[in-house]
Amino acid sequence: MMADIFTKERRSEIMSRIKSRDTKPEIVLRKKLFSQGYRYRINYKKLPGKPDIVLSKYKTVIFVHGCFWHGHEGCKDAHLPKTNVAFWEKKINENINRDKKVIELLEQKGFNVLVVWECQLIPGKFNATLDRISAALSGV
Description:
Layout: H1 8-16, H2 24-35, E1 41-42, E2 53-55, E3 60-65, H3 85-108, E4 112-117, H4 126-138
Parallel strand pairs: 3-4
Antiparallel strand pairs: 1-2, 2-3
């Protein structure tokens, strides 16, 4: 097992700076949706999982998932760290299971649930992601 290159205190400091809302991928997507005329709520607490973006008019919610934190299968950014593997497997699997439960609850309430992965918001994939969102919204 490889040792962490940071001290425990430094690693804790780095991890504490990771945001759970208003991340760069979320902001980029929100700005683009707004510029296209979509209006939404963000992190709406009255819905299960506090979705990142709620488009009430379309009865649609969008979650912007970080590939690492939500275990994006097949993504190069979703690899497990080489240290403390058991902890990270448990943490990410709990996130995946929570995501599934939240999606199920939202669908039971009649919402269309879209998941956008962080890696789908990079140049070269961004327009295709927007097209997928627009198609889902126009189909509602």
